[in-house]
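Field: COMPLEX_INPUT
Field: COMPONENT_COUNT = two
Field: RESIDUE_TOTAL = 558
Field: MODE = joint
Values follow.
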Amino acid sequence: MGKHVLVIEDEPNIIEAISFILSRDGWTVDTHSNGHDAVSVVCAKSPDLVILDVMLPGKSGYDILTELRQMETTRKLPVLMLTARGQSKDRELAEKIGASRFMTKPFSNAEVLEALHELVPQ
Amino acid sequence: MSQRQLTGSRIRERRLMQGMRQAELARNAGISASYLNLIEHNRRRIGGKLLLSLAEVLDVEPSALTEGAETAIIATLGEARAADKVAAAEKEAPEDFAGRFPGWAELMVRRHRRVLELERTVETLTDRLTHDPHLAAALHDVLSTVTAIRSTAGILAETPELEPEWRDRFHRNLNEDAKRLAESSQSLVTYLDQDSSEETGLASPQDELEAFLTDADYHFSDLESAGADKVDTILEQAEMLQSAAGRLFARQYLDRYCDDAKLMPLNDTIAALRELGPDPAVLARRFGVSVPRAMRRMAELPQTEGVPQLGMVSCDASGTLIFRKATEGFALPRFGAACPKWPLFQALSRPSLPIRRVVQQDMRGQSAFLAFAIAEPVTEPDFGHDPLFQAHMLLVALGPADWKPEEVSGLGVGCRICPRENCAGRREPSILTDGF
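Field: COMPLEX_OUTPUT
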């Protein structure tokens, strides 16, 4: 049984592509596409790592991460943030609220895998 | 310093303009040169009889010495000075400058206000790019779709033995995303185009004219029958003509259109075109008009059976494009100069000589055009004055069987976006290839 990753992203074809490459790489993949109840889904699934998009319906990725960092159980949970905005202030904000890694769209499959392996050594 | 005190500066300015010495003015006005010196440097107030005397000697109305730079001008000059490190060190007060050089001061104030206006425009545009929710959503949509495409394409390319079900699924996803990307990028471009022309007022009068003509597809059916009586109505209804210059250009075009329609009636021209073919010189002879007029009239025709797909460009003697009607398959540069190998420019160097060439921009060799070009004087013959020329080029789309590869002249749009290598006409590197 591989490590468990939760992908929180609202773009169905990105979810499908990422799920495919992570599954082939040995990860157990769960997905979720709504920001509104994302925090409770993270708590319920207890993944080893979260891939979190910034722009989500219901609640932004920044708000979700802020809440996760305030809870004891998810304070140190590795979170890879995905965003379509690559401005330095977005990166700074993500780091400030506790993102483990920050990746700008569009990214390659290899970049995602490399980041995950760094965050959660298999 | 009050405005009244600027009177001295104005007296000095007027005296210097007339080349009069200080002593001379003082003597004629009945005061000492040293006292005039104090007045001219705004250190003594002046009014009443002495002001009248000085005005009389200087041969100006007294009001010309007491009225001048407005307080607002002085205030704006002060602002401009404070905003600039070098100017801030200037010892002369804005009041003195405004009093002595009212014209220059006004110019500087106008320039300063323009700079502030442009800075505000830049700020607004920057702010819009950063915070415009529509733009942010559109860009997010484009980038998300590109991400999905990149990731899916990566899987298809890098997974050697992909199961057929997965392969089909990812192909379907790619197709969906490609369509979505095309739609969202087109919507983004439309949004940005609308902004630049409608909201910021950055479109030039030429852009307005081109938008107006493109909207009408260069054909005005009302003018064919009613003639010049309809010009005002058409102009009133044209929302894209925002500036006075744009409306003037459009009026000039429409007036000329009426003349063209009178000399070459619509139905007769279409019938002649069907009978004689799309040769502007032949049509010009049939109707007894100039070749450029026949070209223009052909470009004004509506799309109908027997009328081929036509484009047209004209340039002035500097080579600047002054008229353009685009046609699919032959791109016209939006900015900057066009390809020097266009027959249009060859015509300019050989005035009055008709030039006929089969030309091709498409490097894949799929579409070709028959180009007719000629340059004719726009001024009446006048001994002692060189004529001024304009060149015109009509482009007629050719069918696949209408041209042979050996007769084609290859050319481009403009050097910046032309990938042709070893071109004798190249004047600058292409962004599509390396170097010259």
